[in-house]
């Protein structure tokens, strides 16, 4: 004696289940698209912020290089050596040449 349970499906049940499953997949796909788009926008805003910061740092670097060249100018160094250190340019007779 063999007993089997047979489930009889109604004519539109399979189509209805398939339709619901496809709709769930469409909704899940739409949510993933929204999440990916949001992540891309956040990354873009972060990139733009970093680009602005890099531009500001480049301007600051240029200002520091200008300041460095001003502080190291030959005329400024010579003037400080004369006033603060009481140094002077030697006379030609005071210069001794050293052979290599």
Automatic annotation (TrEMBL):
Q: Where in the cell is it found?
A: Cell inner membrane; Cell membrane
GO terms for cellular component = cell division site; plasma membrane
Task: Provide the topology term for how it sits in the membrane.
Answer: Single-pass type II membrane protein
Against Pfam families, the record matches this protein to: FtsL
TM segment ranges: 12-34
Keywords annotated in UniProt: Cell cycle, Cell division, Cell inner membrane, Cell membrane, Membrane, Transmembrane, Transmembrane helix
Q: Signal peptide span per the entry?
A: none
Explain the purpose of this protein. Answer: Essential cell division protein. May link together the upstream cell division proteins, which are predominantly cytoplasmic, with the downstream cell division proteins, which are predominantly periplasmic.
Q: How does it assemble?
A: Part of a complex composed of FtsB, FtsL and FtsQ.
* Descriptive protein name: Cell division protein FtsL
Record the organism: Simiduia aestuariiviva
């Amino acid at each position: 004696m063999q007993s089997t349970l047979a489930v009889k499906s109604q004519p539109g049940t399979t189509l209805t289940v398939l339709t619901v499953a496809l709709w769930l997949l469409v909704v899940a796909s739409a949510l993933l698209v929204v999440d990916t788009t949001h992540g891309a926008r956040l990354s873009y805003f972060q990139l733009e912020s970093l680009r602005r910061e890099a531009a500001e740092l480049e301007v600051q670097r240029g200002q520091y290089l200008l300041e460095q060249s001003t502080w190291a100018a030959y005329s400024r160094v010579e003037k400080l050596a004369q006033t603060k250190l009481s140094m002077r340019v030697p006379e030609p007779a005071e210069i001794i040449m050293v052979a290599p």
